Amino acid sequence: MRREQGFTYVIVMFMVAVLALIAVRAMERTSTRERRDKEAELLAAGTAYMHAIRQYYNEAPGAAKSFPIKLEDLLYDGRLTNPSRPLRKLYRDPVTGSHEWGLVRDAAGGITGVFSLSTAKPLKQGGFSDELAAFVGAQRYQDWKFVYQP
């Protein structure tokens, strides 16, 4: 009887170690999935801003094309006799959780694009659409610049 003491304790400790390992793996997968979801949201929001800037620029009255001065200008474009809404709402940056975006401006001060202010390294390194081909191999989310260039 004396030789069998502690055997159950060893088995219980082994099971605790296995369960801890499984829990750590599950947390890693969940964290990675959340980051991928945030990246997908960032790509969707950034593309929406880029398309709204394109619409704002292309629908300018007359021959003088201009970019919006502030992001709120994309919500209601009253420059035309028939006002439009290039963007339905201002999106938050899903990576930082903030409504603040980095802005790319032209020489006249108009907004030509947006980018995230996060310095984290993106998980996605390839497989982008043609209009986002410059994102391949980016080292930071700040390098993902959603810019409209006429």
Give unreliable regions as ranges: none
Please count the beta strands (DSSP E, at least 2 residues each).
3
What is the overall number of helices? 1
Strand order of the largest sheet: 1-2-3
Helix content: 25-40%
**How many discrete structural domains?**
1
What is the H-and-E element order?
HEEE
| N- to C-terminal distance | 85 Å
Mean pLDDT: 91
- Strand-pairing-aware structural class: mainly alpha
What is the CA-atom radius of gyration, in angstroms? 25 Å
> What shape does the CA trace take?
elongated
Largest sheet: 3 strands, antiparallel
* Strand proportion: 5-15%
Characterize the structure shown:
The protein has 150 residues and is mainly alpha-helical. It has one domain. Helix content is 35%, strand content 8%. It contains one helix and three strands. It has one helix spanning 7-58, and strands spanning 102-105, 111-115, 145-147. A three-stranded antiparallel beta sheet has the order 1-2-3. A hairpin with a 5-residue loop joins strand 1 and strand 2 (111-115). The chain is elongated. The mean pLDDT is 91.
